[in-house]
Design goal:
Elements (H helix, E strand, L loop, with lengths): L6 E4 L4 H12 L5 E2 L11 H11 L3 E4 L7 H6 L1 H21 L4 E5 L28 H21 L3 E6 L1 E3 L12 H14 L5 E4 L5 E2 L1 E3 H14 L9 E4 L5 E2 H12 L5 E4 L8 E2 L4 H6 L7 H14 L10
Parallel strand pairs: 1-2, 1-3, 3-4, 4-5, 5-10, 6-9, 7-12, 8-13
Antiparallel strand pairs: 8-11
Bound molecules: NADP nicotinamide-adenine-dinucleotide phosphate.
NADP nicotinamide-adenine-dinucleotide phosphate binds next to helix 1, helix 4 and strand 6.
Length: 320
């Protein structure tokens, strides 16, 4: 993949897409192709087909998706399965039809069974039932993985899937209605600090264990997979991307609280769902292939809070 490669980054305004564009530009890639959701709705097959026929990218990173926390997934179940299914099917079909050399499909760790052995290996895919609260989204992502594998086997394409763990970092969504746990915590502690260290109420029991990867590490990992992992090299053409370490939501809360400088009380609302008890990725495969993350959680949370303070009304909130 040379620096003139015509790389289409789908979803470039999102948490992952923005990090990918930053990373590719930092590595000297200067022929990037991007379109906003308004310019190109990836659920529209005709629009996707016309775009690929006109622009003919050689490489594609599919980081566009309808994404959200437990509440959004459980409420808008039809939107999550339909939109993510359509985006994966439209982009992978058009990529094949227009001879895209390499494609990276991004899924999520929720594709693995709810009660699979931890850490979650790539081979635990489709071996047991999924977590109910985000099953529609997970099914759409599993379909994406199987699209990649099936096109590789029937049409000899050289596409691959990467499954990131929970991500955080600049350009994240801090809107409490749709955000993930880490940005939601950061916003709550920040606003409570401004309100004189008011008590902060967090969802659930605090006991679930979660793994977090900084999105800049993820972008490096994606570039590594796109360069180094080819069809048929690994089972399911699938690679987990994570750091292989997790912590309890309670420990995460204490870390974010300390980073923000909030000195008040933390309360737990056990009436809210905990979700999966533990979700830790097995990263032996990508480590064996030669990649490991570099950003420690304590440093990543600190730099994300710095970004949050700098970028005021990012994604639906005011920081001052
Ligand atoms: N965030 C995480 O913790 C996490 C963890 C594991 C895996 N992932 C995976 O990483 C990928 C990206 O997630 P993210 O966190 O970066 O999500 P995000 O911040 O919500 O970004 C999603 C991007 O997709 C675009 N998009 C959504 N629907 C579209 C459509 N119909 N047509 C064109 N563009 C559309 C969005 O544009 P608009 O904002 O304008 O709609 C946005 O640019 C997803 O595949 C997700 O499964 C994320």
């Amino acid at each position: 993949m040379n620096e003139d490669a015509r790389i289409y980054v789908a979803g470039h305004t999102g948490l992952v897409g923005a990090a990918l564009v930053r990373n590719l530009q930092a590595h000297g890639f200067r022929n990037l192709l991007v379109r906003s959701h308004r310019e190109l709705d990836l659920t529209r097959q005709d629009a996707v087909e016309a775009f690929f026929a006109r622009e003919r990218p050689s490489h594609v990173i599919l980081a566009a998706a309808k994404v959200g926390g437990i509440l959004a997934n459980n409420t808008y179940r039809a939107d999550f399965i339909y939109q993510n299914l359509m985006m994966a099917a439209n982009v992978i079909q058009a990529a094949w039809k227009h001879e895209v050399a390499r494609l990276l499909f991004l899924g999520s760790s929720c594709i693995y069974p709810r009660d699979a052995a931890q850490p979650l290996t790539e081979d635990s895919l489709l071996t047991a039932p999924l977590e109910a609260t985000n099953e529609p989204y997970a099914i759409a992502k599993i379909a994406g993985v199987k699209l990649v594998e099936s096109y590789n086997r029937q049409y000899r394409t050289d596409y691959v899937s990467a499954m990131p763990t929970n991500l955080y970092g600049p350009h994240d969504n801090f809107d409490l209605n749709g955000s993930h746990v880490l940005p939601a915590m950061m916003r709550k502690f920040h606003e409570a600090k401004l309100a004189g260290d008011a008590p902060v109420t967090l969802w659930g029991s605090g006991s679930p264990r979660r793994e977090f990867l900084h999105v800049d590490d993820l972008a490096e990992g994606c570039l590594f997979v796109l360069r180094e992992v080819h069809a048929g090299q690994v089972s399911n053409d699938l690679v987990n991307v994570g750091c292989g370490e997790d912590l309890t939501i309670k420990e995460l809360a204490l870390l974010v609280q300390a980073t923000v400088g909030h000195r008040g009380e933390i309360r737990w609302d056990a009436s809210k769902p905990d979700g999966t008890p533990r979700k830790l990725m097995d990263v032996a495969r990508i480590k064996r292939l030669g990649w490991s993350p570099r950003i420690a959680l304590v440093d990543g949370v600190a730099s994300t809070y710095h970004w949050f303070l700098q970028h005021g009304d990012a994604k639906g909130m005011a920081s001052h």
